[in-house]
Amino acid sequence: MTTHSIPSAGGLKLNVQETGPVDAQPILFIHGFSQCGLAWMKQMRSDLARDFRLIAMDIRGHGFSEKPRDVYGDSNLWADDIHAVIAALGLDAPVLVGWSYAGVIILDYLQVYGDDRIAGMQFVGAVTRLGEPLVSANFLGGEFLTLLPGFFSENTMESVSALTRFLHLCQHTVPSADDLYLLLGSNVIVPPHVRQALFARSLNHDDVLAAVRRPVSLVYGEADQIVSPRMCTHVEGLVPHATVSTYASTGHMPFWEEPARFNRELREFARACGSGRNLAGVAGLS
After folding, report:
1. What secondary structure, in 3-state letters, does 29-75 show?
2. What superfamily does domain 2-278 belong to in CATH?
3. Whole-number mean pLDDT of the chain?
């Protein structure tokens, strides 16, 4: 595993880890709200690393990336972060894999840079909207929404209590103590001001998604209590060429609860995107 510190817009440093052959087809993993790149450990440490160049970034404000204030509201900043990682590591037409909040981050990137530089994208329990356009459509779980005051609290006990419940909601099965405390550790290092800033954004990227030409994979858990499975149906309607894989017995983290199936399907999707280099042969392009 190799670790990079990559400067993005305004010089903010992004923590990025990679593994696998540097000349292999790249897959860039982007985690969700209040998490970090460790969320993808069951992919980064799997046999996918024999055949793909795997990259997991800590998004701004998360993990070991820098966490300043007032740099989370602009779609251009999020777009620049993805672009900075692709450019700094010389990623040749990566497949972007975005979980939850990262669905919007991928669409921030596409809005600014288009999809010419990527081979395809996989949305995992992902959203295309934030703020009122997301909440009013009932795309978020009710119990999850009740946790928001705790996410934003500066009181340590209130914050840890909300994050612990959040992590239980993320999985359909009860997480093991080891898994719970590993994920909780990566959540508590995200400052409350970052979590609040992420939720302060309000936007609707449905139009960006509807214009996507590259291959799209949708992966959603039918027992998801964070993002309603209705989100999958909504996105499928916007992207008729998308492939859809639903997991009957998982929640918001199918890549964690059923890693063998997830990794197998990701392998198949990445290969179907072409080599990540031969974009003229990617499905959906003329």
Report:
1. EECCCCCCHHHHHHHHCCCHHHHEEEEEECCCCCCCCCCCCCCCCCH
2. Alpha/Beta hydrolase fold, catalytic domain (3.40.50.1820)
3. 94
